[in-house]
């Protein structure tokens, strides 16, 4: 598979009265054709700003892409005009958000909103657009489409509304679907159904998916590869299997320990102590140092790079720098 979307050393900052806040600080990853890539991190890690940057939707001002590239096929989207970005959003890259209620118009029926979107996209007749709407509703598993089409957003459950949003996103038959916390507002059962739907669309239509979430459990079920972000940077990248079996970055380790184990009842959740530092607040050293059980002198003065430990598995931590004295063997003691 070849990369469809490549983010290269992306930098997106917000310019406030307090100065420049680098929300995305040199992020690189790629999404292959037909793949589901998970981007994981806590709120404030830069994952949502990364997706807005890809969509050309960073609120500006105060936001601005200050460096790097976003390659869709061979085109650098950071250089694209507003018109070209609208075109990309209408045909190639679609996005769904956490709370569908805010993106659906409360005063129009589901049918009106879908047919309108279809007509804008295809210039189809009303009748043809309605038929297409019903077809797309079936594709995303919305039952009794003929009746549902006459209902208003508030008459639907959260899960159904999210399916409507996915239907809207699929109208243009996008090559890439960006889903930012698509299941966070939903209960566990509905969450599982929405993830299953995304996997189905990925498989049947070969839509590449960039799944953005704070929940490692979500990516474990859905993705092939994961990128873990912390404080505006990628701190670990690898296949799901590799990251779960052999997490390397102390932050990733902490995240994995905080995933609830469904088989064990009333298990106490492990959570990582402390907060994500405000972007830009740490000028020197590893940004995780204040929360890291393994921090040593070097971590406070130098900034770690991403070290490739095995092919495709990279970690931004000095413990994996082979030039580090007394070469570390790659295992981290259980804490
Ligand atoms: Fe912890 Fe140091 Fe690794 Fe940062 S570089 S994660 S502080 S051990
Ligand atoms: Mg977010």
TrEMBL record:
Species this protein is from: Rossellomorea oryzaecorticis
Topology of this chain in the membrane: Peripheral membrane protein
InterPro entries, alphabetized: AAA+_ATPase, ABC_Ni/Peptide_Import, ABC_transporter-like_ATP-bd, ABC_transporter-like_CS, Oligopep_ABC_C, P-loop_NTPase
Keyword Transport among record annotations: yes
Single GO MF annotation: ATP binding
PANTHER family named in the record: DIPEPTIDE TRANSPORT ATP-BINDING PROTEIN DPPD, OLIGOPEPTIDE TRANSPORT ATP-BINDING PROTEIN APPD
Annotated ABC transporter domain residues: 5-256
Protein name per Swiss-Prot or TrEMBL: ABC transporter ATP-binding protein
Entry similarity comment: Belongs to the ABC transporter superfamily.
UniProt keyword list: ATP-binding, Cell membrane, Membrane, Nucleotide-binding, Transport
Superkingdom per UniProt: Bacteria
PROSITE patterns, sorted: ABC_TRANSPORTER_1, ABC_TRANSPORTER_2
NCBIfam families, sorted: oligo_HPY
SUPFAM superfamilies assigned to the protein according to its UniProt record, in alphabetical order: P-loop containing nucleoside triphosphate hydrolases (SSF52540)
Location(s), subcellular: Cell membrane
């Amino acid at each position: 598979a070849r990369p469809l979307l490549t983010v290269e050393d992306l930098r997106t900052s917000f310019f406030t009265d307090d100065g420049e806040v680098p929300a995305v600080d040199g992020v690189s990853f790629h999404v292959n054709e037909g793949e589901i890539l998970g981007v994981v991190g806590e709120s404030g890690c830069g994952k949502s700003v990364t997706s807005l940057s890809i969509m050309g939707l960073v609120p500006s001002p105060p936001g601005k892409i200050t460096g790097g590239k976003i390659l869709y096929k061979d085109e650098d989207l950071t250089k694209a005009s507003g018109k070209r970005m609208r075109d990309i959003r209408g045909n190639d890259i679609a996005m769904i958000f956490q709370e569908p209620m805010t993106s659906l118009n409360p005063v129009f029926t589901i049918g009106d909103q879908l047919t309108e979107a279809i007509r804008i996209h295809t210039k189809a007749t009303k009748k043809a657009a309605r038929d297409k709407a019903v077809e797309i509703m079936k594709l995303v598993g919305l039952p009794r489409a003929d009746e549902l089409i006459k209902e208003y957003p508030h008459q639907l459950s959260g899960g159904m509304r999210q399916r409507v949003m996915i239907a809207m996103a699929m109208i243009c038959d996008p090559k890439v679907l960006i889903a930012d916390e698509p299941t966070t507002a939903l209960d566990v059962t509905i969450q599982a159904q929405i993830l299953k739907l995304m996997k189905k669309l990925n498989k049947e239509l070969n839509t590449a998916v960039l799944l953005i979430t704070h929940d490692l459990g979500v990516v474990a079920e859905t993705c092939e590869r994961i990128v873990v972000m912390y404080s505006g940077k990628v701190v670990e990248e690898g296949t799901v299997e590799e990251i779960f079996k052999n997490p390397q970055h102390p932050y990733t380790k902490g995240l994995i320990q905080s995933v609830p184990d469904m088989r064990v009842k009333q298990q106490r959740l492990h959570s990582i102590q402390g907060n994500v530092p405000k972007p830009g607040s740490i000028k020197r050293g590893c940004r995780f140092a204040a929360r890291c059980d393994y921090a040593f002198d070097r971590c406070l003065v130098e900034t770690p790079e991403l070290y490739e430990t095995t092919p495709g598995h990279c970690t931004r931590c000095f413990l994996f720098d082979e030039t580090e004295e007394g070469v570390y063997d790659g295992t981290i003691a259980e804490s």
